[in-house]
Write a structure and sequence with these properties.
The protein has 276 residues and is α/β, with parallel strands linked by helices. Helices cover 43% and strands 24% of the residues.
């Protein structure tokens, strides 16, 4: 009797990824089902995804773990493959996954991501250590946990793939800043709730310089040329932005209360000056 063919569900997490969603879905033709967990897109990401055959689940939440869990609830495949809109699958990568699924030797597959930043492949600066666990036999995956840096809870044997998942990230400074606006706020909130020490000027400078030094010098980001150095600068700025937002949260009275007070003062001034 022929062995039952295992079905694969691809789950894409996306928000306002109109320029990237088509390329992502087109690299998933080998999957039996494609789900898009849409986090409140205001562009035509959803329309494009549906036109390409994806099933859309609208689910807005700041937690990546919650969004991955939501996709899992709707997936019908025997295997689950999580992918982001700016990631791409090569034919070699797909074939390797299918071979492992067919042999049944593993229940979880891990892969390295090959990151392209500012149009260049990165091999240093910490990017060479980017491994992701995104492919699971559905019965082995229990859930995802974590607010920002989410991680899967699973059972079974993990096998590392030889081929890499392609990551077309940090496509411009504007793209970088847009992504930073989302995750730096979340990380700042976690640090504040964890009781981070009061932030001062020394904190900001130290955090930014050390992140740049770690990326560019310790992890040899300079070997990726000017793009590697620029990325180190950006990551240093991101660390500073995180701690600036921690500083904001530490203010008493809060920033919103300060602005509300000023609004009230101006309103009262106009009440006194009725004859202008």
């Amino acid at each position: 009797m022929d062995k039952k063919k295992m079905k694969i569900s691809a789950i894409i997490l996306a928000k306002d990824e109109s320029s990237m969603i088509e390329g992502c879905i087109n690299s998933l033709d080998w999957c039996d089902e494609i789900l898009l967990v849409d986090n409140g897109s205001s562009d035509d990401t959803v329309i494009k995804a549906e036109n390409l055959g994806a099933r859309v689940i609208s689910f807005s939440h700041p937690s990546f773990a919650r969004k991955r869990n939501e996709g899992l609830k709707h997936a019908t495949g025997d295997w689950i493959f999580y992918i982001d809109a700016d990631e791409r699958v090569t034919p070699t990568f797909a074939k390797e996954i299918l071979v492992h699924i067919e042999t049944g030797e593993a229940t979880v597959l891990e892969s390295q991501r090959k990151n392209y930043c500012y149009g260049f492949p990165f091999s240093y600066g910490g990017w060479q250590d980017d491994f992701v666990t995104r492919i699971f036999k559905k019965e082995s995956l229990k859930e995802w946990t974590g607010k920002i840096h989410e991680s899967p809870v699973y059972e079974g044997t993990v096998v590392k793939l030889h081929s890499s998942l392609i990551h077309l990230t940090h496509r411009s400074t504007e793209d970088n800043l847009r992504k930073s606006a989302d995750w730096t706020k979340l990380e700042a909130d976690l640090l504040y709730k964890a009781g981070e020490k009061p932030v001062n000027l020394f904190t900001l400078v130290r955090k930014g310089v050390m992140e740049f030094f770690r990326r560019v010098v310790l992890k040899k980001g300079y070997k990726d040329g000017m793009p590697g150095v620029i990325e180190g600068v950006v990551q240093g700025i991101n660390r500073m932005i995180i701690y600036i937002q921690v500083w904001e949260l530490q203010q008493k009275p809060s920033l919103s209360d300060r602005y509300s007070k000023k609004e009230t003062e101006i309103k009262n001034l106009w009440k006194k000056e009725k004859n202008i």
